[in-house]
């Protein structure tokens, strides 16, 4: 039994060490039969959600304060991994005139005006939506209900980059450190990734899950066409941007008409 789970455990630890700042030891030497680390991305989202939900334990805190510390904790746990992609994508996709220039701008470590504007509005929108989610659930399911939604946000948002990887070509202007984590998932890998949907079903229920999937599906189609036109594919930065926008969309979908 242990030997059968070993390829999955190794892949999971690799995923945690790549997408978070959690200090775990992962075996990178063995390759045969190991599940690809990227298929565990939604499950890494579960860890990020649970660890960053600690402000919910402080019932006397205001909704606004809980929301900002939940967002800040998630950023610290991931090392702003996805946020960095959003900023680079904003500068490159909007500021570049052609594919080569857009990809080159994304490689530039400096923050441009488009990135600065994007990060401000991204944080504000997610903070406002999360505040509303906390407020709406205070008198219903309490902290556990808020936690369930927060888990769904981080799990579902990390499924969309996997779909993007499977539907577009990988493009890069130079050697990228994220290239080793890019892969077309096998059937086994997809089973690992999509099994996280059961967790979302338990967390928020069928209706909320379906609404979120519909919203993400529409966004996926739009983003796919847009990226194909702008850079003829995807790269690590655009995957981070997709994940960040998906987080806001899931919270919005969970709120429904209350948003």
Automatic annotation (TrEMBL):
GO molecular function: adenosylcobinamide-GDP ribazoletransferase activity; cobalamin 5'-phosphate synthase activity
Name of a matching Pfam family: CobS
Membrane topology term: Multi-pass membrane protein
UniProt catalytic activity: alpha-ribazole 5'-phosphate + adenosylcob(III)inamide-GDP = adenosylcob(III)alamin 5'-phosphate + GMP + H(+); alpha-ribazole + adenosylcob(III)inamide-GDP = adenosylcob(III)alamin + GMP + H(+)
Transmembrane segments: 40-61, 111-130, 150-171, 192-222
InterPro entries referenced in this protein's UniProt entry, alphabetically: CobS
A Gene Ontology biological process term: cobalamin biosynthetic process
Top EC class for this record: transferase
One Gene Ontology cellular component annotation held by this UniProt entry: plasma membrane
Cofactors: Mg(2+)
UniProt pathway annotation: Cofactor biosynthesis; adenosylcobalamin biosynthesis; adenosylcobalamin from cob(II)yrinate a,c-diamide: step 7/7
Localization (cell): Cell inner membrane; Cell membrane
UniProt keywords, alphabetically: Cell inner membrane, Cell membrane, Cobalamin biosynthesis, Magnesium, Membrane, Transferase, Transmembrane, Transmembrane helix
Keyword match Ribosomal protein: no
EC number: 2.7.8.26
Family indicated by similarity: Belongs to the CobS family.
Record function comment: Joins adenosylcobinamide-GDP and alpha-ribazole to generate adenosylcobalamin (Ado-cobalamin). Also synthesizes adenosylcobalamin 5'-phosphate from adenosylcobinamide-GDP and alpha-ribazole 5'-phosphate.
Protein name in UniProt: Adenosylcobinamide-GDP ribazoletransferase
Native source organism of the sequence: Marinomonas mediterranea (strain ATCC 700492 / JCM 21426 / NBRC 103028 / MMB-1)
Gene (UniProt): cobS
